[in-house]
Amino acid sequence: MRNLAVANEALPAGLVAIPVRTRLLEEGDDLVAVVREAVRGIAAPGDVLAISETAVAIAQGAFVAAEAIRPSKLAFALARRAHPLATVNQPESMQLVIDDVGVPRVLQAVAAQMLGLLVGKRGRFYEMLGEAITAIDGYTGTMPPYERAIVLAPREPDLVAAKIAAALHCGCAIVDVNDLHRAKVLGASAGIARDATATALLENPHGNGDEQTPIVVLKWRGTGAHPLYAQEAAAC
Predict the structure, then answer these.
(1) Distance CA 114, CA 189 (A)
(2) What pTM value is reported for the model?
(3) What's the pLDDT band for 236 if we cut at 50, 70, 90?
(4) Computed over its alpha carbons, how large is the radius of gyration of the chain?
(5) Does the first or last residue of the chain, that is N or C, have fewer Cβ atoms within 10 Å of its Cβ?
(6) What domains are there in the chain, each with its CATH number?
(7) CA–CA separation, 121 and 136 (whole Å)
């Protein structure tokens, strides 16, 4: 279980992160209803709700079973050379990237990577295919029954965040956060300061294991306006 005290110590003074446990989400779930029930008695108007992209994608049915993918020889070859912690070190995930962008573009990225290494520059493969790669969340570390599911990027994250924000009178951000000290806001309701929200989540208060806490309520207990809003909005 995530150490809440440690996670909160990493936040700006006055900002508190409260991980909220939910039931296991399923395809077709009403996200607004799930979030409303989970944060009842915890969230208040003006708070910011950070919601895991994986939870949103699963509710939308944006995932595919690894067994349904038949990796090519190219996918196997590239996956073996990927970083051990990279999503695309799984041939099935690499195949989805190949299917998305096409073999010619992947081979161009491979050539760019090789040329970059000759001059001491790494990461050219990821620079060229970044969006296609980050849209895929590999199956390692995902909770049962999704431990063999490759989760794709959530659809219309800005719209999802806006609907949740309007229903609960809070700010909302759909986020991609992991234990590698990386956080990104994929979608947000109006007025949310995306960079500040991502920075506040760098210690991953959601957890990256079996915590089953896809929602984090970010409360401001300092003075002045909530620091995760780009501008103060009376509706939030």
Answers:
(1) 41
(2) 0.83
(3) very low
(4) 19
(5) N
(6) 4-62+153-220 (3.30.1330.100), 64-150 (no CATH)
(7) 25
